[in-house]
Amino acid sequence: MSVSQLPKNTEVISGEKPSTAPTKLFSAVVVVAALGYFVDIYDLILFSIVRVASLNELGVTASTELTNQGLFLINMQMGGMLLGGILWGILGDKKGRLSVLFGSILLYSLANLANGFAQTVDQYAWLRLIAGVGLAGELGAGITLVSESLPKEKRGYGTMIVATIGVSGAMLAYLVGQKLGWRNAYFVGGGLGLALLLLRVSVFESGMFQQVQAQGEITRGNFLSLFTNGPRLGKYLRILLIGVPLWFVVGILVTLAPEFGRALSVTGEVTAGLAVFWCYFGLVFGDFMSGALSQLWRSRNKALQVFLAFCATLVAVYLFGLKGASPTTFYAVCFVLGMSVGFWALFVTVAAEQFGTNLRATVATTAPNFARGAVVLLVPAFKYLSGAFGFVPGAAMLGAFTLVVAFWAVSTLPESYGKDLNYVEQ
């Protein structure tokens, strides 16, 4: 991209080129980012898998209370991610991408170890809040580092690898949760995170960030600057809206799979753990396909539009095509539904590519966490709509709204494929 093609509020970085940018897809930075996201997803999704078993042991047994307390704990975790997204995003642009990768994984690893000792729902909730703060930093910092370290023609493949390996952490979470019990599952997650810290020693800081850091006059990590410029704010808000449908699917449809199974008269018992397992198994393939298509089509936006249409189709199948179905059919639809929302890493890649080096980590970290944190708003909206119109119609209304808005956001966002990232926001 030439200087004349850059937005007016950007400035090309002058001086030496970024140093030591790796050209191999399976470089240390990609492998470590992928493993970091693997542990991140393991810990992020673990509560959805062990929700019923853990709350039962803590004295919550009534069906209604299991749903209400489960939604409360999800909100605490997602609320922590909202706070953490801002914290780690700013630190990523001020102190460096690596500092976030180290700090965030240390915090959520310790929180998850402590979670295994929780004795009350209140303790559980506060520890999910702290873990949420820690979990908020991993993906955005990893994608930013990979995007800045790989050549522009390869970075889509790099983030595809990160996502494909990373989302499979949910499957390990299911297997560990089933075999070892919910407390040990949290201990395993914390241990994996602490072990990953040792691998981080082999990763170097982004050359683009170091170049901007060396120019002390450039303001970095100013979160409020996203709201003081009209076009910049509009672009940022559209990015946030793209990620909301995925968390409608995961936070509402899949997490509450047992409740939807009953509402749809599924012929056998449906468990949240298996629904999450099959959804994230589908996500592995979806993230691979969306990343590959964005490279083959040379368009991030076209790939996102196709996957949003795919998602809308599968949400309709889930809500209106499973009446009286068997659990096997239900889980099969969860698998394909997971494929349809497999554009998460592509969404974060687009967020990183839309902004300059001095704001890139702030955007790439806050955007996915604000999208995840949308569950805090989606939950009360769903409770209101389901109370007023019914469980399934309420979910359909909410899903349709999130998908239409996301499709509009993608359609009006500038294409970022092949964009030169070596510039700053003025």
Automatic annotation (TrEMBL):
Keyword Chaperone listed: no
Listed transmembrane segments: 25-50, 70-91, 98-118, 124-145, 157-177, 183-203, 236-258, 270-291, 303-322, 328-351, 388-410
Domain Major facilitator superfamily (MFS) profile: 29-417
Key words of the record: Membrane, Transmembrane, Transmembrane helix
SUPFAM superfamilies associated with the record: MFS general substrate transporter
InterPro entries: MFS, MFS_dom, MFS_trans_sf
Primary localization class, coarse: membrane
Cell compartments where the protein resides: Membrane
Topology relative to the membrane: Multi-pass membrane protein
Name of the protein this chain belongs to: MFS transporter
Source species of the chain: Hymenobacter bucti
